[in-house]
Amino acid sequence: MARLTAAARRRPSGTAATGLAAALACAFAVWTGGSWYAVAHDERAAFARTRDEVLQAGEQGVQNMNTLDHADLAHGLDLWEESATGDLLKELKDSRKQFARQVESAGTTTTAKVLSGAVTELDERAGRARVMVALRITVVAADRRSNTKDSRMLGELTRTPAGWKLSRLGQAPVGDAPAPASGTPTPSGS
């Protein structure tokens, strides 16, 4: 019988080393899979994702509702309607021809740039949220004169099958002034 040297006795066999590596790989896979599952199903992470969706939809909707070019009126009014739902959407559709006449008559182009935004309220179960968005609005008149002002808007959003949409929109109150009751934007510069 062949005698094993002391070094050969201390060295694990190839099968034992492979088994140990496989066991370590399995343990690592279980640990990372469990960690991934916990993060993916963490209520706080889901709430944060929803909050980010609401903020993005709110900022884009408010920007859309404060941007209107007399030279591309149909597209701008379509964006208004795509950004809205509920009573606000109905009001926009009912007033579309009037808005178009006012903007065409004034010959204005209004553009809005979002400066900042925040979700002020979010009820995932009810599918309702509120945002405050700060904008820089530039109105270019028919004579090419421009006027820029900063504005704060309050928007209420409702979850729809197509995503979060504005259901109300109004100016944020300044000082002790109450918030406006209606939510329809009016064409700037008219």
TrEMBL record:
<feature type="region of interest" description="Disordered">
    <location>
        <begin position="152"/>
        <end position="190"/>
    </location>
</feature>
<keyword id="KW-0472">Membrane</keyword>
<feature type="compositionally biased region" description="Low complexity">
    <location>
        <begin position="177"/>
        <end position="190"/>
    </location>
</feature>
<protein>
    <recommendedName>
        <fullName>Mce-associated membrane protein</fullName>
    </recommendedName>
</protein>
<dbReference type="InterPro" id="IPR032710">
    <property type="entry name" value="NTF2-like_dom_sf"/>
</dbReference>
